[in-house]
Structure formats: C-alpha cells, structure tokens
Design a protein that fits this description.
Layout (H helix, E strand, L loop, with lengths): L3 H5 L2 E2 L2 E2 H32 L6 H28 L9 H36 L6 H28 L4 H10 L1 H7 L1 H16 L7 E4 L2 E8 L3 E6 L4 E5 H4 L4 E3 L6 E9 L5 H16 L10 E7 L4 E9 L4 H21 L38
Antiparallel strand pairs: 1-2, 3-4, 3-7, 4-5, 5-6, 8-10, 9-10
Helix pairs in contact: 2-3, 3-4, 4-5, 10-11
Amino acid sequence: MDRLTPLLQTRLFGITVGEYGLAFLFILAGYLLRWVLTLLIRRGKRLAERSRHPYDDAILAALERPLGTAAVLAGLWAAFSALPLPTEPVNIARFIQGLLRAGFIIAGAWFLVLLTDRMAAVMTERAKKTETLLDDQLIPIGRNTLRIFFIIIGGAGVVQEMGYSVTSLLAGLGIGGMAVALASRDTLANLFGSVVIFIDRPFHVGDWVEIGDLEGTVEEVGLRVTRIRTFANSLITLPNATLTTTAIQNWSRMRKRRIKTTIGLTYDTTPEQMEAAVEGIREVLRADPRIHQDFFLVNFTGFGAYSLDILLYCFTVTTAWAEHLQVRQELLLAIYRKLEELGLEIAFPTQTVHIAKEDGAGKTALPGEPKAMGRELPG
C-alpha cells in the first residue's frame, strides 16, 4: 500500500493518477448501472405482457434507451466532478457540466417523444375497433403536435444550458418577424388547412377520394400534409392548404352505386316484343335484392343508328367497387338470358345495302334514294 501511494499521487496535467482512477470507476459504474436498468426493464416487459393493459408495455419500451443513456450521463457527471478541472483561463468544469445537463434534457425529451409514439400506436389499435373514424384522424395530429412540442422544449432547454438566453433569442426573432412570417406563410396555410379538414371532415382515413387527377385511399391526415395511397400503390403527399380550395369527390360517402347502360335490340324486333323485353328486364330487377327497389328505370328510349335502344338505369345496394362489378355482371347476364328466352337478339353495328337494277338509262330515283351521277363509258 505504501508503494501505491506515491503512484496514486503522481500528477498528469495537474490531476493525480488516483483521481483519474476514481473517475474511471464512476464511468464504469454508470455503464454497470445502465446494464442493470436494462435487465430490470426487460424483465418488467415480460411481466407487463401478462397484463391486459398495453400502456405499461408502452411506458417500459419508451423508457429503456433514454434511461440507459441517463445512467451513463450520471456516471460521466460523477467522473468529471471527481476531477479538479481548471477554471482559468476557461472554466472547463462548468462547460462540461453544461454539456451533461444538456444531455439529460435531450434524454428526457427523447423519452417523451418515444412515449408519445408508443402511446399513439396503442391508441391507434384501439381506435380501429371503434365505429367512429374521428379518433383515427385525431391520433396522428395529436402525436405530431406533442412530438413538435417536446422537441421545441428540449431544444430550448439545451440552448439555455449552453449559456444563451432563450428570451433574448425570441426577442431577436422579433426583429426579423416579418421575414419569418413571410417564410412561414405556407406552413401556417397548411396548418389552417388541417384545421378546416378536421372541422368540415370532407374525408376520413381509409376513404376513397378523387382530388383533381388524383384518385386513391386516404392514408394519413397530418398537421401539414395529407398522404394518399393511389391504386398504383404510390404514395402522394398533398399540402393541406390546397385541399381547402380544391373540389374533393369522396366515393366512400356514396349511399348506393349507379348502373347506367343502353341495351340495343335488332330492328326486326316488333313493338309487342319490345314491350315484352322492357317488362322482362323490369322483372329481373325486381327479383334481385341487391338492386335498390325504390327507384329504377327501364324504358324504350329511341331508334339508334343500328339498334332499338332500351335505357337501363338502377342502383346497387353495395358501394364497394369489386362487389358492385360482380352485381353488375350477374344482372346483365340475367337480362341477357331473359332476352334469349323472348327470342330477341342484341344488335351490333351493321349496314344494309340496297342494290337496284336499272331497266334503262335515265331512270328516276325514288324519293329519299340517292341519285346516280356519272357518264356512260364507250363500249
């Protein structure tokens, strides 16, 4: 022990070897504390998995990494406190303590941001089980708002610990307030747009919408932008400000889906057969419970270029696109079979050519017939 005393009192850069050793032990203790805390939290996670409440899992998951970082910072704090660092010409001890305090603030803000994300994930899963879509839309907005708030508070705390006055910085921003206002005009417009979307609720997350040339499913409504997944599986990001001045067609809000088509019968169809065809199609519609019975139209509407036209106008009960197409297909096939039972044929584009043989030169064309023009070629 007597031999170690001179060694421990040996000075390097004004600090004894013993003080260096003590600082090293404090740092080692900080890492050891992080390891112990990590083990305890992981064991707590296994216990929390048995409970019915998912919030304790979220808290422990958010706490693990920031708490471990704080343990290491505590070890560094104790280590540097054990070292007699110089105060002149620069107060190194105060500078390092400021950095470590800033680290604690960052770890705290980090924990709050992670906790916000974990809680939002739990609430999102619960919101999927509710009938209302309002909570699905509010949760991402609340999550992003809290994240921004905690980051700003953490940043302000770090700036304060680095020796700058947050109040003075805010006052300095007031000098360039006009420039900041102009630069943030689009951001404020997008924030206002998100408020309008929240109040008017033209769509919800999961709705099928058409906005201009864009068509797809709403995936997320944020504070600044709305994300839409197109049917080509690409993700489109739209500023919320544009949505307040653009026509939005929400296909998911349809109460029923329309079928409108024209059925053409051949011109050899008699008036009696036409009446039977119209009534037969109406019977097909009445017999199908997937068609809205409160309103539909089946009428002979005109003489087409190559067909006698029947208008079919009705609505399916379902609004889902795939189900609607299936109902439409089965309905048209039933009408097709009905027309075959009546001995009627579906028309298709045709031309009828009438050839008249002239008895002699100079024959006069009948009314409505085209007159031939030309000259006789020498034989």
